[in-house]
């Protein structure tokens, strides 16, 4: 029966084995196809990461801004953590699939999967080298290429592993398409990196040209090996406006082994988008062909399983038939065997009375006689076993004796071990006590050293405080000296001005009178410089403050009269408002410093324009415009920062003091000053006077003084030429200008000298003064000059009337001194 069943199974075994081999092969091909699909997806992800890493390295690893970053492009930003995590997940899946892939006896699959695992294991090292390594963008790009080649090799292994029954032209053309997709991705990555680097890497441009050539060759191989359906699918997928744009970029950028200046002006984002769209379409065709391979191999595996099941069913039926025939034959043998079994059992139990159950000489009788002989031999063996039991008992007693001796040895060794431990403990305690003593000695020495250092530090601190106190005393002494000298100089200048005015009143000669006017103006500038020095030294300069509001026009005129090139200043329209008396001097001083800067840093023949407006919030804004060369943005920002600080640091002053002075005096009264760049060139100084400095209409019992500034486009009109025929002389540099007509109330309380000239108020800022005009030509008659200056003197009275009245009656109030 067993022979017949075995014969049937042996006859059907080759067919079943062949079916099993086919199923195993188709299953292995299906797993390999699935691994190829996952490898293609990972290859695409690594190609994108390679392009991003190369562009990131091309930007100096984030050291400089990518060319297209201003337009929202992400070229050159590197790889985000999310993208890196996605690639790591794909890598882990492909590595696991490659590790469990049944390679069979194929050395090709063993080599491909081994290379794939080794390449993917180096991915962290490749990333680290790209992110922080010393290599350039080309080196970072080339480091990723072996990983992508190892992934693309899976498709080639699949094509080579297909048997003749599963061969397919599209699968055979898959490696060529994979090469074309990889070369297209490489061309895109190297071109984007080269454009990101500004075209400075010839290696990237040359590599892009080589990749483009390889792509064209691989596409030619694909078209030659693929079916018409696959070629049609590729042609219908890789088409469109994006592909045409990408082809034009490729033709332009890979025609030479380098990038031209015109190429570098291309927007990197546009090139990257077009090339990426083309590569994505090629990848879609590659993925669809890989999916078709998986579907086809799945169908092949199912067919092989069905064929194996049919063949196994046929063999099983034949085996069942053979088994039935064998059972029928075996029953004729079981009865004699039963009797023989009963005979053997009786002999095993020691019943020697049972005889052989058969009388024939066939096999069953021979077996019965053999059983009889075996029973006799078993009896002898039982006797031998009893003897051996006695020997075992003797050996057990010897073993117990050996155990007792071993216990005695253990006790002796334990006593010796305890003695050694006590000795080691004593030595350890002695060593610990010695180390503790040495540590205490070192701590005492360290404490003494620290105390000495602390004492030395206290001496240094005391010396530092003494030096600091001395430095403060020296600074205070120097400041007090500067203030004292400035006050003395200011008093001398005031006396000089009074002396000059006395000379002007008594002078009849026009030339000498002109010289006195020039000295008067020079002394006025000296007085402003002395007051500036007092401000920088931290002293108050409110001795000449006005008690009543002062018209803004007079404040502006006083500022113009205190600068060197006053004849270049043009006053445009000003608001009809007045300033509080306590702020008039400082405001005039601020305007004079800004006007001085405007005339000093503009062409000598150009005018400086000052105008003002009344803002909607009630504040007054003044504007001083010049047409100079302007200021750099950095210097302009530095100057505005200085002007915004009410207490600037004078220790950092290395040049002019004008802006420091303006910042201090403007900060006293909350005046805001800012420099702005003029569109037509030059600088505009904007001064905003707050509400606190503007007088209310009821501050003066006589009402608001009106100023018609529409006609004040030039505060220094030229005097008419004299009618005497004399030789022309150089024009005078400083002369009193003719004033425009003033309101009637301005002449109510004139205070002039005996010859009609304005009389200066002691220690005032010149708010009643007026810059002299440039004379037109030769000498003029003194009487004619005085007549022309009469209007000028009358116009100045209005701005000086309140200050003179206060100077006669009482000292300035606390508010005026503030």
Structural class: mainly alpha
**N-to-C SSE string, H for helix and E for strand:** HHHHHHHHHHHHHEHEEHEEHHEEHH
The neighbouring-strand order within the major sheet is 2-4-5-7-6
How many strands appear in the DSSP assignment?
7
Can you put this structure into words, describing what you see?
Mean pLDDT is 77; it is low at 68-73, 701-782, 784-800 and 809-818. α9 crosses α11 (268-348). A five-stranded mixed beta sheet has the order 2-4-5-7-6. Strands 1-3 form a two-stranded antiparallel ribbon. The chain is elongated and about 185 Å long. The protein has three domains: 2-313, no CATH class; 355-506; 507-817, Heat Shock Protein 90. By secondary structure, the protein is mainly alpha-helical. Helix content is 66%, strand content 4%. β6 and β7 form a beta hairpin.
Features:
mainly alpha; five-stranded mixed sheet; two-stranded antiparallel ribbon; 19 helices; disordered C terminus
Q: Would you summarize the structure shown here?
A:
This protein has 818 residues and is mostly helical.
Topology:
Blueprint: H1 2-58, H2 81-100, H3 107-121, H4 123-132, H5 137-161, H6 169-196, H7 202-225, H8 228-237, H9 241-253, H10 261-264, H11 268-348, H12 363-506, H13 510-536, E1 550-551, H14 552-561, E2 569-571, E3 578-579, H15 581-600, E4 608-614, E5 620-625, H16 633-643, H17 658-669, E6 672-677, E7 683-689, H18 782-809, H19 814-817
Parallel strand pairs: 2-4
Antiparallel strand pairs: 1-3, 4-5, 5-7, 6-7
């Amino acid at each position: 029966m067993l022979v017949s069943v075995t014969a049937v199974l042996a006859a059907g075994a080759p067919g079943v084995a062949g079916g099993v081999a086919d199923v195993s092969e188709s299953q292995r091909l299906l797993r390999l196809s699935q691994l190829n699909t996952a490898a293609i997806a990972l290859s695409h992800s690594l190609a994108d990461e390679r392009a991003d890493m190369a562009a990131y390295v091309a930007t100096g690893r984030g050291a400089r801004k990518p060319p297209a970053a201003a337009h929202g492009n992400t070229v050159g930003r590197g790889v985000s953590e999310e993208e890196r995590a996605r690639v790591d997940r794909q890598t882990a899946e492909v590595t696991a699939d490659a590790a469990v892939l049944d390679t069979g006896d194929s050395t090709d699959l063993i080599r491909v999967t081994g290379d794939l695992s080794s390449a993917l294991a180096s991915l962290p090292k490749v990333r680290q080298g790209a992110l922080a390594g010393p290599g350039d963008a080309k080196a970072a790009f080339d480091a990723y290429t072996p990983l992508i080649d190892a992934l693309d090799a899976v498709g080639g292994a699949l094509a080579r592993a297909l048997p003749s029954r599963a061969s397919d032209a599209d699968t055979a053309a898959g490696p060529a398409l994979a090469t074309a997709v990889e070369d297209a991705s490489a061309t895109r990555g190297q071109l984007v990196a080269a454009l990101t680097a500004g075209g400075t890497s010839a290696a990237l441009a040359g590599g892009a040209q080589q990749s483009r050539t390889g792509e064209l060759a691989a596409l030619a191989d694909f078209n030659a090996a693929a079916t018409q359906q696959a070629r049609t699918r590729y042609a219908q997928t890789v088409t469109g406006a994006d592909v045409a744009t990408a082809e034009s970029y490729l033709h332009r950028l890979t025609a030479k082994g380098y990038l031209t200046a015109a190429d570098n002006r291309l927007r990197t984002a546009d090139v990257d988008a077009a090339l990426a769209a083309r590569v994505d379409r090629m990848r879609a065709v590659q993925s669809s062909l890989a999916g078709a391979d998986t579907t086809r191999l799945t169908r092949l595996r199912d067919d092989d399983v069905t064929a194996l099941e049919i063949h196994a069913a046929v063999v099983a039926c034949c085996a069942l038939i053979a088994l039935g025939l064998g059972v029928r034959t075996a029953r004729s043998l079981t009865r004699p065997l039963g009797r023989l079994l009963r005979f053997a059992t009786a002999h095993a139990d020691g019943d020697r009375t049972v005889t052989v159950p058969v009388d024939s000489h066939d096999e069953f009788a021979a077996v019965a006689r053999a059983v009889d002989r075996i029973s006799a031999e078993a009896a002898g063996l039982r006797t031998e076993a009893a003897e051996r039991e006695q020997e075992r008992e003797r050996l057990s007693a010897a073993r117990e004796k050996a155990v007792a001796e071993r216990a005695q040895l253990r006790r002796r060794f334990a006593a010796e071990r305890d003695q050694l431990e006590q000795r080691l403990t004593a030595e350890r305690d002695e060593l610990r006590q010695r180390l503790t003593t040495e540590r205490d000695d070192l701590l005492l020495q360290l404490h003494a050293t620290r105390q000495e250092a602390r004492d030395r530090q206290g001496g240094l601190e005391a010396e530092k405080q003494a030096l600091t106190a001395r430095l403060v005393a020296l600074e205070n002494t120097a400041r007090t000296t500067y203030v004292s000298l400035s006050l003395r100089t200011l008093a001398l200048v005031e006396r000089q001005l009074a002396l000059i005015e006395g000379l002007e009143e008594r002078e009849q000669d026009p030339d000498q009178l002109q010289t006195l006017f020039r000295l008067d103006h020079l002394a006025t500038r000296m007085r402003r410089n002395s007051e500036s020095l007092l401000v920088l030294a931290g002293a108050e300069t409110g001795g000449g403050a006005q008690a009543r509001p002062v018209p803004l026009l007079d404040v502006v005129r006083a500022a113009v009269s205190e600068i060197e090139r006053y004849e270049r200043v043009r006053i445009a329209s000003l608001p009809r408002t007045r300033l509080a008396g306590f702020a008039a001097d400082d405001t005039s001083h601020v305007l004079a410093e800004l006007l001085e800067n405007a005339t000093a840093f503009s062409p000598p023949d150009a005018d400086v324009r000052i105008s003002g407006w009344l803002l909607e919030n009630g504040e007054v804004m003044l504007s001083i415009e010049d047409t100079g060369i302007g200021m750099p943005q950095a210097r302009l920002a530095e100057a505005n920062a200085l002007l915004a600080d009410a207490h600037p640091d004078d220790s950092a002053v290395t040049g002019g003091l004008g802006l420091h002075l303006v910042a201090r005096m403007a900060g006293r009264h909350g005046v805001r000053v800012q420099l702005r760049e003029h569109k037509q060139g030059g600088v505009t100084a904007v001064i905003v006077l707050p509400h606190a400095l503007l007088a209310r209409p009821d501050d003066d019992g006589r009402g608001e003084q009106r100023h018609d500034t529409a006609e004040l486009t030039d505060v220094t009109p030229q005097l008419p030429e004299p009618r005497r025929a004399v030789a022309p002389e150089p024009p005078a540099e400083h002369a009193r200008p003719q004033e425009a007509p003033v309101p009637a109330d301005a002449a109510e309380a004139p205070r002039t000298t005996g010859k009609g000239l304005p009389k200066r108020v002691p220690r005032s800022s010149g708010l009643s003064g007026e810059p002299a005009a440039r004379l037109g030509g030769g000498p003029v008659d003194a009487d004619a000059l005085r007549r022309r200056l009469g209007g000028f003197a009358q116009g100045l009275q209005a701005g000086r009337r309140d200050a003179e009245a206060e100077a006669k009656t009482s000292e300035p109030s606390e508010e005026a001194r503030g």
